[in-house]
Structure formats: structure tokens, C-alpha cells
Design goal:
This protein is of the alpha+beta class and about 400 residues long. It has a single domain (about 70-280, about 300-385), classed as Beta-lactamase (3-Layer(aba) Sandwich), CATH 3.40.710. Helices cover about 30% and strands about 20% of the residues. The protein is built from twelve helices and 13 strands. It has helices spanning about 5-10, 20, 75-90, 130-135, 145-150, 185-190, 195-205, 210-215, 250, 260-270, 310-320, 370-385, and strands spanning about 45, 65-70, 95-100, 105-115, 160, 170, 175-180, 185, 285-290, 295, 320-330, 335-350, 355-360. Strands 4-3-13-12-11 form a five-stranded antiparallel sheet, with helices on both faces. A four-stranded mixed sheet has the order 1-2-9-10, with no helix packed on it. A two-stranded antiparallel ribbon has the order 5-8. Helix 5 (about 145-150) packs across helix 7 (about 195-205) and helix 5 (about 145-150) packs antiparallel against helix 11. It is globular and about 70 Å long.
Length: about 400
């Protein structure tokens, strides 16, 4: 298939794709949904997983091309509703949400707010897909993986006890880490209680080379969707030439690098998949006017086991259905005490998860923590996920 045609096809569905074809909307438009009342699918359409059209009004489609996606129409509409409500009530700058099916990597929903008005196609380029482009320090989201890496490498086990150095730990010449929790604790308890010093010490034991190797395997520094949608950010991962070992504790607790929501979703889906890598995707197939399949998703026949099942399952069990993160935004060469990213990763079901949800908001006004601002979005989706 001609690359220009492919790019146009993804870009063309303005009702679906905010930010030059990146983010799926809720399928609504001022002119109604093309799939209502049994209307036939048009050529050049973009379809949900059930075969119905997701887009409303759009520029004249390219004859002979239908893009079938993994999007679940009901999940998309429900997640869009709850993300938009949180965005408005918290007066946030941006908001996003992603739901991934763990076993297959199918992206069942992807939402970004603000998005594009389908009847104002010329304004598309002023928006971006936050689910793919919003990069921020993972902070708390990194801690389970530092514990998992240390356990997977045989450095510790779940019951190993780590000193918290009475709540004050100096590492190297320039690094001092403080923690409200002074007492020693097991690896599992350190994870449950977000003990910075204990987890920072694990990062030092892991070492730079192994830490970087694992982080890259989990998706940091790469395009997770491998070009399926344009403008996906790779985040930011520290270059080796400026990576000083004294930064290891901070990297272990999620500092000094940036990730995107889709990268977070991939990493947590891998944990939920008993440690076997999950590769998210959103395009199932592309079909021409004669029914000829131009492209069809082919799952990896031998995905890599990044963590052992025992380690991955232990980490998931230590997270009570998910974990929040609250990240200070970086502004004018310093961390802001006003601007935050509030986010949440949720598993459903909590044990042996089938779905991973990532939701978040940037620069919410008033409450700014992941638990207060982002968790309610995930909680609102639980009844919907339970019906799948």
C-alpha cells in the first residue's frame, strides 16, 4: 500500500483522530454517527472492532480503503465520558486514557482531551494525542519495576529486608534521599508503602547497565505502536554519556527520565501478563475495495519473557488493583510546586488482570494527586470492564 495513502487514511478520520490522526474520539459529531439505524459502512471508513463506523463527518474518503481497529465502541464512549468529566471538573490542561487487553495487546480505548471538533478539520494540527505524546517522569510508576528487576536478577526476594537508614541516606557526593519511613522493611512492604530509600538502594544494586536494559525492554525510549499512529513520542531516556551512577537511586524511584501513557500501559500490561512482553496495537487490518487485505496484524509468535511469572505475579499482588502517581512538572529548569501530572494505572480484575487502564491529567487545579484526581476515572470504568 502506498505510504502516502496509508498516512492519509489514518489522518482522514477527523471524528476519530485528534492531533493529525492520533487519538480516537467518542464517535459523535453534529451530523450523527454513520452507523446509526443500520446505515452501511462507507468506503474509506475507520471501523471499531465490531465493524461499525467510529467516525462522523470527515473529508471525502479515499475509495477502496477500510481500516479496522481494535477499539471497543462502548468502552471508548464510556472512557471518553469519564475522562472529559474529570478534565472539566479539575480544570486540567490535558487529560488521557488508555485501556489495553492484556492477553492480546489490543488497545480497546484511547482518549485524549482536548480533542478535535470533527466539523473544524482545519484545526486538527493545533491538538495532540496526549496518550501518545504526553511525556513525564514516571515517579511511583517505576518503583514496582525496580523491585521486579532486583527480584528477577536474584539480588533480593520478596521477603528480603532492606534498611531505610533511619529515613536519611547519602549516596555519592551529591545525593541525599529522605524518607518519612525510617524503619527496615521487606521488599514487598517497601513497594506497598512507596519507600524511596529502600527502592533507591535496590536500583544501586541493580546497576546502570541492567537497569537501562530492562527499562528499554519495557518500552522507554521507543515507539510502542511502531508507527501505527503518527507523532508518537519516545519519551526521554538518559544518554549514557551523562548518566552518572549517583543518579541511580533517583532513577529507581522514577526520576531523571520521561515516559508516555502508552509506554506505561505496555509496561504494566507486561507485568499483568505474567512477565511476558505485551506489544500494544490499534490497527487490526486494512482492506481495499475488493476485500483484499492490504495489512493484517500478526501477533508475535514468541514474545520475550522479561520477568519470570513468579516475580511478575508477586509484584501485581503487591499492588492493590493498581497504583497512583503524582509527578511534579519541570519548568524553567526546576521542579514546579504548582504544576503536576496526576495519573493512575489500574488492573482489572485486581488478581490475574485481563485489562490494564492508564488515565491521567496534567496541571489539574485544586487537588493534584493521582489518587484524588485520576483514580476516580478508573473507578468509574470498573462496572463497564466487569461487563466485558
Amino acid at each position: 500500500m502506498n505510504r502516502k495513502i496509508m498516512k492519509w487514511c489514518v489522518f482522514a478520520s477527523a471524528g476519530l483522530l485528534a492531533v493529525a490522526g492520533c487519538c480516537f474520539g467518542n464517535g459523535d459529531s453534529k451530523h450523527g454517527d454513520l452507523s446509526e439505524h443500520g446505515k452501511p459502512i462507507r468506503r474509506g471508513d475507520v471501523l471499531a472492532a465490531d465493524g461499525t463506523s467510529l467516525a462522523g463527518i470527515r473529508p471525502k474518503p479515499m475509495d477502496g480503503t477500510v481500516i479496522r481497529t481494535t477499539i471497543d465502541r462502548n468502552l471508548q464512549q464510556q472512557l471518553s465520558t469519564h475522562v472529559r468529566a474529570a478534565y472539566a471538573s479539575n480544570r486540567a490542561e490535558n487529560a488521557w486514557g488508555i485501556i489495553i487487553k492484556v492477553q492480546t495487546g489490543e488497545i480497546l480505548s484511547m482518549v485524549s482531551v482536548p480533542d478535535v471538533e470533527t466539523n473544524e478539520f482545519g484545526e486538527v494540527l493545533s491538538y495532540r494525542n496526549n496518550a501518545l505524546e504526553m511525556a513525564f517522569q514516571p515517579t511511583t510508576f517505576m518503583k514496582p519495576f525496580t523491585c521486579a528487576i532486583a527480584m528477577n536478577e536474584g539480588i533480593v526476594n520478596a521477603d528480603s529486608v532492606i534498611s531505610q537508614s533511619d529515613g536519611l541516606w547519602r549516596h555519592g557526593k551529591d545525593m541525599t534521599m529522605r524518607d518519612r519511613l525510617p524503619e527496615p522493611m521487606t521488599v514487598t512492604n517497601a513497594l506497598k508503602r512507596h519507600a524511596d530509600i529502600a527502592i533507591g538502594k535496590l536500583a544501586v544494586e541493580i546497576g546502570k547497565e541492567r537497569l537501562v536494559e530492562y527499562v528499554k525492554k519495557l518500552g522507554s525510549g521507543t515507539k510502542v505502536l511502531k508507527g501505527e499512529l503518527p507523532h508518537e513520542s519516545v519519551g526521554w531516556i538518559w544518554p549514557n554519556k551523562i548518566f552518572d551512577d549517583h543518579l541511580l537511586p533517583w532513577i529507581g524511584i522514577g526520576g531523571y527520565f520521561q515516559v508516555t501513557p502508552i509506554q506505561i500501559a505496555k509496561a504494566y500490561a507486561t507485568l499483568a501478563n505474567h512477565g511476558v512482553e505485551v506489544v500494544p496495537y490499534i490497527i487490526s487490518e486494512i482492506v481495499d475495495d475488493n476485500g483484499r487485505v492490504l495489512r493484517r496484524h500478526a501477533p508475535d509468535s514468541s514474545p520475550e519473557a522479561i520477568f519470570s511469572p513468579e516475580v511478575a505475579d508477586c509484584i501485581v499482588a503487591a499492588l492493590p488493583g493498581g497504583t497512583p502517581a503524582t509527578t511534579q512538572m519541570y519548568k524553567d529548569r526546576r521542579f514546579s510546586y504548582v504544576d503536576y501530572v496526576a495519573s493512575y494505572v489500574g488492573f482489572f480484575p485486581a488478581s490475574n488482570p485481563e485489562y490494564v487502564t492508564v488515565v491521567g491529567l496534567s496541571r489539574p487545579k485544586g487537588e493534584h494527586t493521582g489518587m484524588k484526581v485520576a483514580f476516580p476515572i478508573f473507578a468509574a470504568m470498573l462496572p463497564v470492564l466487569d461487563e466485558l
